[in-house]
Amino acid sequence: MMAHLPVPLSRVQLGRTMPVDIRTPDGRLLLRRGQVLQSEAQREMLAGHQACMTETDAHAWQRAHEREMRTMRLNGVPSAEIARTPMPAEILDTDYLEGRTVDGGWLDLQEILRGLLYQGAAATKPLPRLEGIEQKAVALLNQDPDECLFVLFQALPDLGLGYCATHALLSGAVAALTADKLALPPGNRTVLLRSALVMNIGMARPQDSLARQHQPPSPAQRSIITTHPPTSADILRGFGVQDAELLDMVHWHHAPEGTTGHAEQQLGLQLLHLADTLVAKMAPRISRPAMSALGAAKSLVLEATAQTQTERIAMASVMGFYPPGTYVQLANGEVAVVIARGERAATPHVASLINAKGMPMSSYLYRDTRLVDHTVRAPLPANQVNVRVNLEKVQRLRQQHGV
After folding, report:
1. Which one, out of 33, 63, 77, 262, has a CA that is 20 to 30 A from the CA of 112?
2. Distance from C-alpha of 356 to C-alpha of 294, rounded to nearest angstrom
3. Of 154, 165, 75, 151, whose CA–CA distance to 115 is shortest?
4. For residues 84 and 78, is the Cβ–Cβ distance under 8 A?
5. Which residues pair with 366 in a beta bridge?
6. Helix boundaries (H) for 124-262
7. What is the rounded CA–CA span in Å between residue 79 and residue 350?
8. CA-based angle 395:398:403, to the nearest 5?
9. What is residue 400's three-state secondary structure?
């Protein structure tokens, strides 16, 4: 039986065309798509009949409403007025996108996203695919942020996986978690994550090639790097994207000062730019080593201005000095992998992998970095740790210790 959801009658403006069929819970038609809600008496009649619509129509109408509100924010409309915005009278075809089901975990998602980014403007049915990737990313991030960071930071040094997709997912996760830390509206978090997934679609293959080459970028490659933000936005327009805020975020993610949007939009752009830059610093290249997460977090704070201090400190706090998935050396000489963030940036939860004599341990040992013997002495680059980490073992250790 088809699922139905109630119609938000209080948010439907009199005299507006209804963009969906309105029925009773048992399927009887009350008001046909394209007809007008004419009076309060008619609204009360619909309420009395428990007016509802199909789940597909409900989700599409909500997407149309969110898109309209984002456009109003871009145009500087006050938040109080935006909050009173009635449901729109039009639903676009793109609002009806049904995301493809994406199974598996973060690495499965990474592989699917990499394929789409590589295809670029030539991608077939890209919007439903992106919708499915986004829905899965949101579900996984909400389920376990520490596992998200663990898997993606573990993947970041592995250039064979395809850097472009790992970068996109990790940038999106860091930006979204920072938005949560700053208590931004859920819509801002959604646009941040969505923008991060596709901001580099205009240079996905070159991005991976650059990560693997020994020499500095050529003039042609530098041109691609410089022009890829507007190129990415153009590709999205070609896909049929009409979300002005998303297109603006992608276009200006390298130069957030280039747009004159309202304060909320500027903050979102700043977060996307910071996350993009931060992940790039922590990613190794054949031509240069990666910056440690500790170094990256310090640079975030040290380079802050009065205008950017709040978001920079929030992002450093979200990530911690030693994010899940990175490696550290402890005061007792052991080498450990960070398995979860701690109460403080400098006290993560870790699992020791290599003993003080340099020998791999037969089983992972949980260490409390708040204790003197197990404090973190220094971060370690991934290429100095010759042990393959098993995610299932890490998950069991986290469960045993409630972290």
Report:
1. 63
2. 22
3. 165
4. no
5. 351
6. 126-143, 145-155, 163-181, 186-198, 204-212, 219-239, 244-251
7. 43
8. 135
9. helix
Residue with tokens 């993947």: 155
- The type of residue at 156 is L
User: Could you give the CA distance from residue 71 to residue 402 in angstroms, rounded to a whole number?
Assistant: 43
Query: Model confidence over 215-274: pLDDT tens digits?
Result: 888 999 899 999 999 999 999 999 999 898 899 999 999 988 767 667 777 899 999 999
Structure token pair of residue 77: 């409309």
Residues 6 or more apart whose CB falls under 8 angstroms from that of 7 comprise 20, 22, 46, 51, 52, 53
Q: How many CB atoms lie within 10 A of CB 403?
A: 16
Buried b (16+ CB within 10 A) or exposed e, 134-153: bebbbebbeeebbbbbbbbb
Q: Looking at the chain, how many residues does it have?
A: 403
Mean residue pLDDT of the chain comes to 91
Cα(37)–Cα(269) distance, rounded to whole angstroms?
39
Task: Provide the 10 A C-beta neighbour count for residue 392.
Answer: 7
**What is the distance between the alpha carbons of residues 242 and 308, in angstroms, rounded to a whole number?**
29
Tell me which amino acid residue 51 is. A
Element (H, E) at 22: strand 22-23
In this structure, the number of other CB atoms found within 10 A of the CB of residue 185 comes to 13
Q: Encode pLDDT of 156-173 as tens digits.
A: 998 888 899 999 999 999
Is residue 306 scored above 60 in pLDDT? yes
